[in-house]
Design brief:
The chain is mostly beta strands and about 170 residues long. It has 2 domains: about 10-90, Elongation Factor Tu (Ef-tu), domain 3, CATH 2.40.30; about 105-165, SH3 type barrels (Roll), CATH 2.30.30. The protein contains 2 helices and 12 strands; from the N terminus they run E-E-E-E-E-H-E-H-E-E-E-E-E-E. It has helices at about 75-80, 105, and strands at about 10-20, 25-30, 45, 50-60, 65-70, 85-90, 110-115, 120-125, 130-140, 140-145, 150-155, 160-165. The strands form 2 sheets. Strands 1-2-5-4-3-6 form a 6-stranded antiparallel barrel. The protein is elongated, with a radius of gyration of 19 Å.
């Protein structure tokens, strides 16, 4: 994970979950809000060391991406890639709309209530389907903050903080 909102060199857009067929394709669980990007990429970076791979072909299939990577020509080679993260350079990140943020921008922010209480720092972002949830670690222990308009009132990236209005029963 990224420390204190430091900008990473790469963004994860998927994870290889299995080989696909016998010609070296891999099935990728999509971890981006922009799955169409796979069709435009010429190169991806795999694993912690971000090993560069030519992307020969990409297609979307039943909620996954199917990728044919250069040098991966059979099922055995594809199997060896299982579990690898598929990444792109930060420079290729899709532009976001107003009030949209990448996870690395949120992790590490200090969280303050409108009453001036410091709850801690965002340590993780959970993706629940309905809305994201910010996991905050602080003196109260772990606090889960739903990333919704009524709760997260301000995201101040320059100041390194979130301002939240706690709903009744949240803590």
């Amino acid at each position: 994970m990224w420390k204190d909102g430091a900008e990473p060199r790469f963004l994860v857009i998927g994870k290889i979950v299995a080989p696909w067929g016998v010609k070296g394709e891999v099935k990728v669980a999509i971890e981006t809000d922009f799955p169409e990007r796979f069709n435009r990429l010429k190169r991806v970076y795999l694993g912690e060391k971000a090993v560069s791979c030519v992307l020969e072909k990409a297609r979307l299939h039943k909620g996954h991406a199917l990728l044919k990577l250069g040098g991966c020509d059979d099922r055995n080679a594809a199997e060896k890639l299982r579990g690898q993260l598929v990444q792109i350079p930060i420079e290729e990140a899709m532009p976001l709309g107003e009030d949209e943020y990448y996870v690395y921008q949120i992790v590490g922010l200090d969280v303050w209530t409108t009453e001036g209480e410091h709850l801690g720092r965002v340590s993780e972002v959970l993706f629940t389907g309905a809305n994201d949830v910010y996991v905050v670690q602080g003196e109260r222990g772990e606090v889960l903050i739903p990333a919704i308009e009524d709760v997260v009132l301000e995201v101040d990236l320059a100041g390194g903080r979130l301002i939240v209005e706690l709903l009744e029963g949240l803590i």
